[in-house]
Amino acid sequence: MAQSNPAEALANIYRTPELWQKITFTFMCLLMYRVGAHVTVPGVDVLALTDFFANQSGKGGGFLGLYDLFVGGGLSRATVFALGIMPYISASIFIQIAGAVLPQVEKLQKDEEGRKKMTQWTRYLTVALAAVQAWGFALFTESLQGAVAVPGIGFKMEMVLVLTCGAIFVMWLGEQITERGLGNGASLLIFFSIVERFWPGIFTTFKFVSTGAVGLFSLAVLGLLMVGVVGGVVAVTLAARRVAIQIPQRTMSRGRMREAARNFIPLRLNSAGVMPIIFASSVIVVPGAVAQFSGNSLAQSISEYLAPGTVLWYLIQAVLILFFTYFYTSIIFNPIDLAENLKKQGGFVPGVKPGAKTAEYIDDVVTRITFPGALFLTVIALLPQLIAQWINVPFQFGGTSLLIVVGVALDTMAQLQQHLLLRKYDGFMKKGRVRFRGRQATGGTGF
Question: Of the CATH numbers 3.40.190.10, 1.10.3370.10, 2.130.10.120, 3.40.50.2000, which one belongs to the domain with range 21-213?
Fold first, then answer.
C-alpha cells in the first residue's frame, strides 16, 4: 500500500526498530565525520590556505578545488580528515580497473574468498595512497608562503601520520555505515560533504543580490536553470533502455511446460556515473600542476592555453569526458558475462541467438545509449563554468556535485523503501493467513 502522506511514512520508519537503528547509526557516523572535518592539523596557517583556495575558485578551482569539494572543505582548512574518503575510492577504482585488465584479479572477484582478499588489498592500497597524498599535500603546503610555521622533515612526517590516520578512520566509518547503517557509506560521506558546501554558496549569492553585485534577473535565471538541471539529472539518472528477455519456466502445469516468462534487462543511460568527469578534470589540470611546482616556461605556456574558461579548455574537457565515459563503461559493464549468465538460466533475447550473439547485441545497445549519456555528462560538467561567466554569480550549482547528490539521494531512498517493503512482507508472513486450494496455511509454520 502506498504511503498517503510524508508524516505517515516517517511514522512507519519510527515504528520499524531495525530501520530506525540503522538511520540513527548512520547519522552518528556522519556527525562524527563532520566534527573531525573541522579539527585542524597543528603547525598550519589555515588563513593562508583558504586565501589560496579562494583565489583558485575564481579561476575554476582545478583538481584541488574538486578534491576540496568532495571532502567538504577539509583540504582548504587542513583538517585531520583533509583526505576524506577519496584515497579509499581511488583504491577501489584501481582494483576495479585491475579486475577488467588482469584475468587473475577478475577470477578472484568472482569467488567469495577472493572478494575478501580483494577487500584487504583495497584497504592496503588505501593506506599507501593516503600516505603519498599526505606527503604531496605537505609539500604543497610548504610551497605557500607563510602557510607552515616550522617547515622541514618533521612537519612532513607529522602531516603524513595525521592525514593517513584520518583517511583510515574515514574509511572505517564508511565501511561501518555500509555494513550496519543505511546506504553506501563512501557515497554518503561525499554526499554530506558536498551538501555542506551548498549553504555558504547560497547565502553568498543572496548577499551579492543585496549589495547589487548580482541583479534580480540574473538570480531568476539562476533559479530556473537550477530547476532545469536538477530535473535533467534526475531523469537521466533514472533513464534506462529495457532489453526484453524471456526465461522459460521449469515447473509443469497440467502436464505442460509453462510459457516463458517475459522480463527485461535495464541498461542505464548513464552507467559510468560521475567518474568520467573526475577523470577528465584530473587529466586537464596536470599541465597547471606541473607548471606550478616545476616553474618550467613551456609548462606555464601550455597551462595558460588550458586555463579554465578558455575555448580550448572547453573543447578538451568535452572530448575527455566523452572518451572516459566509453572507457569507464567498458570497464564496469561486461556484456559477455551478462550473456553467459542469461544463457545458464535458459533465458534469451527474442530474435537473438544465446551466447556470443546476445553479447554482441547487448554491447551494441550499450554503445548506442552511452553516447547521449556522455553528451549529458559533458553539458552538466561545463554548464557551471558558463553560468559563472555569463551571470557572474559566486555559486556554481551544477556539474559533478549535483550528479553525486542526486545519485546518492535516489539510491538511499530506494534502500529505505526496500527496508520498509521487506518489513511489511515479513509481518504478513508471520501474522497473515492465506488459503491454498482450500487448505489454510499459516505463515511461519511451513507448508
Answer: 1.10.3370.10
